[in-house]
Amino acid sequence: MGRKFLGYAISLYRNYHKVRSKGGTNVEILTNKNINKPEFVGEPRNIRWSEEQEKVLDHVRRGHSVFITGGAGTGKTFLLEHIIKMLKESYGESRVFATAPTHIAAFRLGGQTLHSFSGMGFSNDNYHDDLKKVLHDEEAWRRWRMAAVLVIDEINMVDWYFFSRLQWIAKEIRQSDEAWGGIQVIVSGDFLLLPPIPKEVLGFRFYDFAFEVRWDENFDIQIELTKNFRQSEERFIKLLENIRRGKMDSEDLHLLEQKQTASASASAELDPSMVYLYPRVRDAVDMNWEIVDSLPEEKVEYGCRKRGKGHYHIKEKRGNPKYLWKKKPSRLGLSDDLLVLCKGARVMLVETLDVSNQLVNGATGIVTGFMKNDGRCHIDELNPDKLLPIVKFDSSGVEAVIQPITKCMMHQKKVKTLSSKRQLPLTLAWGRLIHKCQGMSFDRVHVGLTSRVCEYGMVYAAISRVTTLDGLHLSGFQPSKVKAHPEALDFYERFRQHQLERDTVVVADKTKQMNLLSVSTSDWEKAIVEYRQKVSK
Ligand SMILES: Nc1ncnc2c1ncn2[C@@H]1O[C@H](COP(=O)(O)OP(=O)(O)OP(=O)(O)O)[C@@H](O)[C@H]1O
């Protein structure tokens, strides 16, 4: 029995590594000749930087660590893209690291998630366990040693505990008492957008923002961008500014109520060209089912194959979507157990398959057709007709055949919980979570706020995605759902009070002080030995 289990564990482990290491095994690129650079990575042409953006660029050029903040659409990320390009030209590709807490935000910067950069993973370890982890991962250690610049976008979603561990690791690995061990940090975000995932202690929910402890020590300068580039209508910009601060005047309220009435009286028909944003996964899933059902195209169903303790070959029959949803979602699943696709379906990747072709977690596209599997992968258990979907991705223009992948979870201490799930790495994407849309712009959006769930900054994050008032559709809106976190409001209050002082501070040029560290394997081995000696004392 033990042997059988061990054999199974090894085969799952190998499979896992195959899937993780060879992105190309589960996706076949059909057309990528016309890869357009994603709209947001595009080469800046005819750009006129705002005065504040110019100021940021000036400080960055002088080697200063900068915090860039400002409302949605003020060009924070756009500016970061330019900064990253500029710094890579000065320091070289391998010394500038672009990161963000989510895959899609990191992808926009052509970087990696902050967790993956750090080498600390997702555990909530203490500082010393984190350091041990980084020291045992030569690549992660090299990144920390090599870094001349670390860029972090969407800092509002990073919690204080993680942020403080990063600061500490940087100092330890680089053996320096300077902030971030001498790395130039460029951090960006708006604390009045979505907060970090709240913690719960004794039934009490609290949010720990990255700014909470010794924030000012991280930066030479902090700058707020105020010119909105995403929206141009004055009325809309004023509404967004008010919602950002969690308040609305009678005019704002009237405008939103008008929008809501207009959306309710508009044709009840679902519009596949619209993006539907919700605070809860369940609403997004229901909307996806409704839209896919309403399309006249022939449907193709994909099940999943689960292996491991308690579930062998479970196959879901398509049923009432509400019923499906009542089932506990699998802990390790990529997405729902049943996926229904058809030509024209809007889909999103839930796994990074091929970074060079921009097929990353969160990339969206349209199903353009299906292809019979010619034996290149095992699809029979998931789809008896052996059809593989062909997806044309929005941002890259790549057309690819998507093949199923297997995700495994292995608890080394409790081998009994070993399990795996094989399915297509896709979900339908008309309905989306507001959390997953931060940083995006859309022309037509329906913001559905009918559920009771409503996080701080959520209405603001959702409404600020749309470029014009005309493109905004609304349901379930209530004024009480417009909330800004009081601590974030306090932060900006203090921020503005200190702005004048900051403007007068002259910070010395730091470019010549750049301390580039050595990164040889022998240095790494020496660091581990030194750490062991330190711990054993
Ligand atoms: N100087 C500029 N000139 C022209 N367009 C700009 C400029 N700065 C930003 N933009 C445009 O403004 C839009 C919003 O920019 P961006 O997404 O960077 O804003 P953001 O502050 O990061 O928003 P969010 O907080 O919602 O992510 C983008 O379409 C971008 O191309």
Structural account:
There is one protein chain. The chain is α/β, with parallel strands linked by helices and 537 residues long. It folds into 2 domains: 51-226 and 490-501 and 519-536, Rossmann fold; 234-481, no CATH class. Helices cover 33% and strands 18% of the residues. The protein has 15 helices and 23 strands. It has helices at residues 2-21, 51-61, 76-91, 103-108, 114-118, 127-135, 138-146, 160-174, 234-244, 250-265, 281-294, 321-326, 458-463, 486-504, 521-536; strands spanning 27-31, 66-70, 96-100, 112-113, 149-152, 184-188, 199-201, 204-206, 221-225, 275-278, 300-302, 305-308, 339-341, 346-349, 364-372, 387-393, 399-402, 405-409, 419-423, 426-428, 431-433, 445-448, 472-475. A 6-stranded antiparallel sheet has the order 1-17-16-15-14-20. A 6-stranded parallel sheet has the order 4-3-5-6-2-9. A 4-stranded parallel sheet has the order 21-10-22-23. α2 runs parallel beside α3 (76-91) and α6 (127-135) packs across α8. The model is unreliable at 12-25, 33-45, 309-333 and 410-417 (pLDDT under 50). The structure holds adenosine-5'-triphosphate. Adenosine-5'-triphosphate binds at residues 47-50, 53, 70, 72-78, 190, 193, 229-230, 439, 441, 464. Residues 47-50, 53, 70, 72-78, 190, 193, 229-230, 439, 441, 464 line the site of adenosine-5'-triphosphate. GO terms for molecular function: 5'-3' DNA helicase activity; ATP binding; ATP hydrolysis activity. Its cofactor is Mg(2+). Its EC number is 5.6.2.3. Residues 50-252 form the DNA helicase Pif1-like DEAD-box helicase domain.
